[in-house]
């Protein structure tokens, strides 16, 4: 594991994907580097006020950017942006894939872009962990995979958003994110199930989780989801359906490495059931509701 960064000199940074994660990251990049270039379907005066320069479309952004961070849900959305003009420029371009995606898919995309642009467009995968609260605070863990020189530039660009670390060649960041999401899914599944067990046993949930949060059950996920687990309010933040997508990427890694996983298939089955029940767009703490409403097959 190598943590690298180099100073930015004359590098123009762009961001596409200004959702719950991308918008605060763009704000940190604008403040950290003096400016950042963005494009979106609607005006973002809030980001412009913090130093962002908004462009009409991806082609206009590509005309000025040296590095573009793509904070999009997955590779199909990345392909849409590429088709919409992000490749229209004639200058060298480094794409930072912030999406949580398939490692083989990212590698295939990079190989295709290298071939089609004659090496002009390079790729670093840079998925993040820490949720929207980490994006707002600028404390994200950023898992990078790619060539050392490209990751050094990516680290310098992304430093205002958290801790960027190169973990290996292209795709390594996505493998690390799949591992991260396996732990997240296992933790939130256990927290939801434990909450139902305690509630049906007459235990005060707030008191119990305050107590257990001081022991081995402590986790950042418990800290950030405790209130939701206690109240049952699973209004969306980190949606359950995205965990299912990420678990599928983990299953892909398991297959590629010949790993006969024990926990991963059970988690996949649980989150497939959650999504099939129409709960996929709820916060991941919906695991409490899912277990509470679940019925044994007749």
Automatic annotation (TrEMBL):
<dbReference type="InterPro" id="IPR008927">
    <property type="entry name" value="6-PGluconate_DH-like_C_sf"/>
</dbReference>
<feature type="domain" description="6-phosphogluconate dehydrogenase NADP-binding">
    <location>
        <begin position="12"/>
        <end position="163"/>
    </location>
</feature>
<dbReference type="Pfam" id="PF14833">
    <property type="entry name" value="NAD_binding_11"/>
</dbReference>
<dbReference type="InterPro" id="IPR013328">
    <property type="entry name" value="6PGD_dom2"/>
</dbReference>
<dbReference type="GO" id="GO:0016054">
    <property type="term" value="P:organic acid catabolic process"/>
</dbReference>
<keyword id="KW-0520">NAD</keyword>
<dbReference type="GO" id="GO:0016491">
    <property type="term" value="F:oxidoreductase activity"/>
</dbReference>
<dbReference type="InterPro" id="IPR002204">
    <property type="entry name" value="3-OH-isobutyrate_DH-rel_CS"/>
</dbReference>
<comment type="similarity">
    <text>Belongs to the HIBADH-related family.</text>
</comment>
<feature type="active site">
    <location>
        <position position="177"/>
    </location>
</feature>
<dbReference type="InterPro" id="IPR029154">
    <property type="entry name" value="HIBADH-like_NADP-bd"/>
</dbReference>
<dbReference type="InterPro" id="IPR015815">
    <property type="entry name" value="HIBADH-related"/>
</dbReference>
<dbReference type="Pfam" id="PF03446">
    <property type="entry name" value="NAD_binding_2"/>
</dbReference>
<feature type="domain" description="3-hydroxyisobutyrate dehydrogenase-like NAD-binding">
    <location>
        <begin position="171"/>
        <end position="286"/>
    </location>
</feature>
<dbReference type="InterPro" id="IPR006115">
    <property type="entry name" value="6PGDH_NADP-bd"/>
</dbReference>
<protein>
    <submittedName>
        <fullName>2-hydroxy-3-oxopropionate reductase</fullName>
    </submittedName>
</protein>
<dbReference type="InterPro" id="IPR036291">
    <property type="entry name" value="NAD(P)-bd_dom_sf"/>
</dbReference>
<keyword id="KW-0560">Oxidoreductase</keyword>
<dbReference type="GO" id="GO:0050661">
    <property type="term" value="F:NADP binding"/>
</dbReference>
<dbReference type="GO" id="GO:0051287">
    <property type="term" value="F:NAD binding"/>
</dbReference>
